[in-house]
Amino acid sequence: MVERQLIKAQDRNARVAIGSDETAFTGVSSPILDIVAKRVENRLIEYLALTPTSETFWLSRSMLSPEYDALIMAFENAERKIKSLPELRRSDRLEDANAIVDEDVLLF
Length: 108
Known about the structure:
Elements: H1 2-11, E1 14-18, E2 22-26, E3 34-41, E4 44-50, E5 56-60, H2 61-64, H3 69-82, H4 92-107
Antiparallel strand pairs: 1-2, 3-4, 4-5
Protein backbone atom coordinates (compact mmCIF):
# COMPACT_ATOMS: atom_id res chain seq x y z
CA MET A 1 0.00 0.00 0.00
CA VAL A 2 2.82 2.41 0.85
CA GLU A 3 4.58 1.72 -2.47
CA ARG A 4 1.37 2.44 -4.41
CA GLN A 5 0.96 5.78 -2.62
CA LEU A 6 4.56 6.72 -3.38
CA ILE A 7 4.14 5.87 -7.05
CA LYS A 8 0.91 7.88 -7.31
CA ALA A 9 2.58 10.84 -5.62
CA GLN A 10 5.50 10.66 -8.07
CA ASP A 11 3.16 10.43 -11.10
CA ARG A 12 1.78 13.90 -10.51
CA ASN A 13 3.19 16.91 -12.33
CA ALA A 14 4.28 19.78 -10.13
CA ARG A 15 5.85 23.17 -10.67
CA VAL A 16 8.11 24.14 -7.80
CA ALA A 17 9.38 27.69 -7.34
CA ILE A 18 12.87 27.89 -5.82
CA GLY A 19 13.69 31.37 -4.67
CA SER A 20 12.37 34.22 -6.79
CA ASP A 21 13.65 33.22 -10.25
CA GLU A 22 14.23 29.46 -10.26
CA THR A 23 11.55 26.98 -11.31
CA ALA A 24 11.68 23.19 -11.33
CA PHE A 25 9.19 20.66 -12.69
CA THR A 26 8.61 17.18 -11.37
CA GLY A 27 6.79 14.33 -13.02
CA VAL A 28 7.32 15.45 -16.62
CA SER A 29 9.73 14.02 -19.18
CA SER A 30 10.47 17.30 -20.97
CA PRO A 31 9.48 20.32 -18.92
CA ILE A 32 8.82 23.70 -20.46
CA LEU A 33 10.45 26.67 -18.78
CA ASP A 34 8.68 29.49 -20.55
CA ILE A 35 6.45 30.52 -23.42
CA VAL A 36 8.36 33.04 -25.54
CA ALA A 37 6.20 33.72 -28.62
CA LYS A 38 2.82 33.11 -30.20
CA ARG A 39 1.70 32.56 -33.79
CA VAL A 40 -1.41 31.56 -35.71
CA GLU A 41 -1.00 28.83 -38.34
CA ASN A 42 -4.12 27.77 -40.26
CA ARG A 43 -6.34 29.29 -37.54
CA LEU A 44 -4.52 27.21 -34.90
CA ILE A 45 -2.82 29.12 -32.09
CA GLU A 46 0.70 27.87 -31.36
CA TYR A 47 3.17 28.92 -28.68
CA LEU A 48 6.96 28.80 -28.85
CA ALA A 49 8.00 26.80 -25.78
CA LEU A 50 11.49 27.02 -24.26
CA THR A 51 12.93 23.86 -22.64
CA PRO A 52 15.76 23.58 -20.06
CA THR A 53 18.15 22.53 -22.85
CA SER A 54 17.45 25.87 -24.61
CA GLU A 55 15.56 24.09 -27.38
CA THR A 56 12.37 25.68 -28.65
CA PHE A 57 9.29 24.03 -30.11
CA TRP A 58 6.06 25.37 -31.59
CA LEU A 59 3.24 23.62 -29.71
CA SER A 60 -0.50 24.06 -29.91
CA ARG A 61 -2.43 25.18 -26.86
CA SER A 62 -4.13 21.79 -26.66
CA MET A 63 -0.72 20.10 -26.31
CA LEU A 64 0.29 22.49 -23.52
CA SER A 65 -2.96 22.37 -21.55
CA PRO A 66 -3.67 21.84 -18.73
CA GLU A 67 -0.13 21.38 -17.36
CA TYR A 68 1.22 24.68 -18.65
CA ASP A 69 -1.88 26.91 -18.51
CA ALA A 70 -0.13 29.13 -15.94
CA LEU A 71 2.73 29.82 -18.38
CA ILE A 72 0.30 30.55 -21.21
CA MET A 73 -1.68 32.97 -19.03
CA ALA A 74 1.52 34.71 -17.88
CA PHE A 75 2.65 35.12 -21.50
CA GLU A 76 -0.77 36.41 -22.61
CA ASN A 77 -0.90 38.91 -19.73
CA ALA A 78 2.65 40.14 -20.51
CA GLU A 79 1.65 40.66 -24.16
CA ARG A 80 -1.49 42.52 -23.10
CA LYS A 81 0.56 44.73 -20.75
CA ILE A 82 2.92 45.67 -23.62
CA LYS A 83 -0.13 46.68 -25.69
CA SER A 84 -1.54 48.68 -22.73
CA LEU A 85 -4.53 46.34 -22.41
CA PRO A 86 -5.93 45.07 -19.09
CA GLU A 87 -4.94 41.64 -17.80
CA LEU A 88 -7.16 38.69 -18.59
CA ARG A 89 -9.14 37.60 -15.56
CA ARG A 90 -12.25 35.64 -14.73
CA SER A 91 -15.40 37.44 -13.75
CA ASP A 92 -16.39 37.26 -10.09
CA ARG A 93 -19.63 35.54 -11.03
CA LEU A 94 -17.78 32.81 -12.95
CA GLU A 95 -15.28 32.29 -10.12
CA ASP A 96 -18.16 31.88 -7.65
CA ALA A 97 -19.87 29.36 -9.94
CA ASN A 98 -16.64 27.38 -10.32
CA ALA A 99 -16.14 27.34 -6.54
CA ILE A 100 -19.64 25.92 -6.04
CA VAL A 101 -19.01 23.22 -8.65
CA ASP A 102 -15.66 22.35 -7.05
CA GLU A 103 -17.34 22.01 -3.65
CA ASP A 104 -19.99 19.70 -5.12
CA VAL A 105 -17.31 17.52 -6.70
CA LEU A 106 -15.41 17.31 -3.42
CA LEU A 107 -18.50 16.33 -1.45
CA PHE A 108 -19.38 13.33 -3.64
